[in-house]
Amino acid sequence: MKLTFGPEPPVKVSYEAIENMTGLKFPWVQQNDDGSKAFYYGMCPECDNALGLINPFETLSTEPHGRHKLEPVQGFTHDLEKILACSRFKRAARSGLVNGCETAVMTPNGRSVRQIVTENEDLLIGIVTEVTGISPSLTLIRALFRTFFDTPLYLRPTITPGNAPWLLFGALRTRPLHGQIIRTESDTAKAILRKVEAARIGRYSRLEARPRHWIDIRFTLYRHRISGTDPPCETINFMIVSKEGATGDRTLLEKSIRLRPESFLRRIKARENPTPRGSRIINIARAELQQHIAQHPI
Ligand SMILES: [Zn+2]
49 alpha carbon to ligand 1 midpoint, in Å? Predict the structure, then answer.
């Protein structure tokens, strides 16, 4: 483990090292809320995440050592993906998490896409709203994440960090749009209002159906295409489909959306602090990812 934030070589866990190298100061030593218990931390030399120190006083028979913390620890950066990829993260700790473990093969690209989607979700939602006119509720966003992490769309070979916003929204496929905020000036709103008699844009710009005229309006994103090479033209098909009673699906709107991965990556680089809503979205994403990883730690 390391007891410094610099590039120094790792040291063996011992009370002497802890005392000399950290001065027993925050964040290396932290108290619980009532100050009755102290916790000692080190840092993993490979993944730079916090390690909880086991037997720091060398009073027990176990050899003093560090154990990766799966929850964020104040004063340390926390990157769950890196912990799971870390060669020092013990299999035993992993198996304690396993619950119906899946065998999907995680790739470095998949990991990085998952991380980018989680940490930039507010930007992603913003881009999709700009282009489609649909501003999903926090409840819907939570459901999106659950679907997104459970069906490993991000393992597709054509998925890159730049086109990830659309990938996430691909998970919307079968979600009804009722109750969601839709910009009245958008093509989406115009198509729905023109073709579905029972629909209207109500209070707070939410899509409503008239009483007893429930119509399931679906949002579908598929047919991802990359053509040409210099620069490649990347598109995805966007469809709004309605279903009413026993009748089949009816397409209300279909258009090809040009993805601009390089512009999305530029926005990630230039990003400022998220808005309060943005922070809530990111926290939802993190919570869903943690829950997913706890059940499928691969
Ligand atoms: Zn590590």
Answer: 6
Tell me the CA–centroid distance for residue 106 and ligand 1, in Å: 18
Whole-angstrom distance, CA of residue 132 vs CA of residue 148: 19
Q: Chunked in runs of 10, what are the mean pLDDT values of the chain (298 residues)? A: 84 88 92 87 90 87 84 76 76 41 57 86 88 90 84 67 78 75 94 89 86 73 68 81 78 89 88 90 92 77
What is the whole-number distance in angstroms between the Cα of residue 87 and the centre of ligand 1? 7
Q: pLDDT at position 39, please?
A: 92
10 is a domain residue:
no
The string of DSSP letters for 225-270 reads EEE-SSSPEEEEEEEEEEE-TTS--EEEEEEEEEE-HHHHHHHHHT
Q: Please give the pLDDT value at position 96.
A: 37
Tell me how far apart the alpha carbons of residues 288 and 298 are, in angstroms, rounded to a whole number.
15
Tell me: do 113 and 188 sit in the same domain: yes
Q: Which of these three, 95, 129, 158, is where a domain ends?
A: 95
Q: For residue 80, how far is its CA from the centre of ligand 1 (angstroms)?
A: 10
**Ligand 1: centre distance to CA 82 (Å):** 7
State the pTM of this model: 0.59
Print the domain residue range for 20: 15-95
Whether residue 297 has a cis bond before it, omega within 30° of 0? no
Q: What are 250's strand-pairing partners?
A: 242
State the distance from the centre of ligand 1 to the C-alpha of 284, rounded, in angstroms: 25
Domain identity same for 120 and 236: yes
Residue pair 135/182 in contact (Cβ under 8 Å)? The answer is: yes
Rounded distance from Cα 20 to ligand 1 centre (Å): 23
Cα(60) to centroid of ligand 1, in Å? 24
Give me the pLDDT at residue 83, please: 77
CA of 75 to the centre of ligand 1 (A): 16
